[in-house]
Amino acid sequence: MRFAGKVAVVTGSGREGGLGEAIARRLSEEGAKVVISDIGASRDASTPDAMIGSTDEMKRIADAMPSEATTFACDVRNPAQVEALADHAIDTFGSLDIWVNNAGIGYIMKPLVDVSVDDWRAVIDVNLNGAWFGLQAAAKRMIAAGKGGRIINVASQAAKSGFPHAQAYSSSKHALVGLVRSASIELGPEGITVNNVCPNHVTTGLGKWQNEHFAEVQGISVEEYLKRMAARIPMGRPGLPQDTASAIAFLCSDEAIYITGESMNVSGGEEPH
């Protein structure tokens, strides 16, 4: 029970079978009280119902957590809502010790010449600005509490390598590398570590959509697409949600107290740098 007495916020954790749910569950299994957060309902064209965690889904996930859990609907593009999310954690459970920026848009994928300004802004706004708002909100409260803390961004293999149809996505994830390098220098003296985890492909609900999209782009079946993907991964398979959840649990633990400013690959050897 490494996280007994700790309170964790996980953004983008409101989809059943999603990466955020797996992260929240792993922290909860080890004793953390968790705040399940997602946007709750579609707000605009860039947040369709099929790609977000609904209020009802968030509640089902929270009810199934092994430790105490609560829910809070938050659009990470809105700094006031992110601040309110941080306050909710403290008001409900008494502290804020772990913050995981998991919310992201990975479903706006188009050829470069077809990407609109709105497409670009939507991805950057969630993946980069949302992570920045979360990092800042968490840091302010952790500094005030004087107990240190853990802040982790779910970046991606796309933080290290470029991919077709993912210009905004790759740019937003590359930017997170610079963000943690800078933030870790400022927050280190406060006992707060700031890191990224960089998973390769994980077949969640979003991952399934990506499989279908890129198989269609390449003119091959989903089965063939997955076969080719597995062939280029030294460990022979795509990532699982628990692979990333385990890495995050380690970075949140006391064993990782001297690790900060890093972007840890969780890719089965596919991303070696």
UniProtKB/TrEMBL annotation:
Family recorded in the similarity comment: Belongs to the short-chain dehydrogenases/reductases (SDR) family.
Organism lineage string: Bacteria, Pseudomonadati, Pseudomonadota, Alphaproteobacteria, Sphingomonadales
Name recorded for this polypeptide: SDR family oxidoreductase
NCBIfam families: PRK07231.1
PROSITE patterns: ADH_SHORT (PS00061)
Keyword Iron: no
Any Pfam family matching the protein: adh_short_C2
SUPFAM superfamilies to which the protein is assigned, alphabetical: NAD(P)-binding Rossmann-fold domains
Entry keyword set: Oxidoreductase
Source species, domain of life: Bacteria
Originating species: Novosphingobium decolorationis
CDD domains: SDR_c
Stretch forming the signal peptide: none
